[in-house]
Specification:
By secondary structure, the protein is of the alpha+beta class. It has one domain. The strands form 3 sheets. An 8-stranded antiparallel β-barrel has the order 1-2-5-6-7-8-9-12. Strands 3-4 form a two-stranded antiparallel ribbon. It starts with a helix and ends with a strand.
């Protein structure tokens, strides 16, 4: 009688601990993508903060978003949704006018390098010699800081 009574709390606490650890693992994967990433040659900046969100300069009326892209690109691109799994992060972006959207696949190569793969139409364009041109289908960004500000 006493043994089953004392085993219940132990099994219960062990189960709660296991669920808590499993629930913590996806948050760790999301934290890997948080930060400021940049491609210096193209003046391309990607800011991500999946935990707290970021207030986009000039767009404070939108509140906090998961991230945005700025620099010498066609407008400011806002992260509308994101999905993180063990291998990659999928971002869905919308431009500042809401007329174009883009899907990006992000993959962490190491602590300081992020690979971007553009999916579908190349709506995200860079400014080169006073003209807009397409980004390559895949390119890499360097981590500038772990914080998105």
């Amino acid at each position: 009688m006493f043994s089953s009574f004392y085993q219940f709390p132990f099994k219960f606490y062990l189960t709660i601990l296991f669920i808590g650890l499993v629930g913590f693992l996806p948050a760790q994967n999301q934290n890997m993508y948080n930060g400021h990433f940049s491609h210096i040659d193209d003046d391309f900046h990607l800011y991500i903060d999946f935990d707290k969100g970021i207030e986009v300069p000039g767009f404070s009326f939108l509140g906090f978003v998961d991230g945005y892209i700025s620099g010498k690109v066609n407008g400011i691109w806002l992260v509308t949704t994101h999905e993180v799994d063990s291998e990659k992060c999928v971002l869905r972006l919308s431009d500042d006018q809401g007329s174009d959207s883009q899907i990006l696949h992000l993959r962490i190569l190491n602590d300081s390098t992020l690979q971007i793969k553009i999916i579908g139409n190349h709506n995200l364009k860079r400014l080169q010699k006073r003209k807009y041109s397409k980004f390559p289908s895949q390119f890499q960004l360097k981590r500038m800081s772990n914080t998105s500000t």
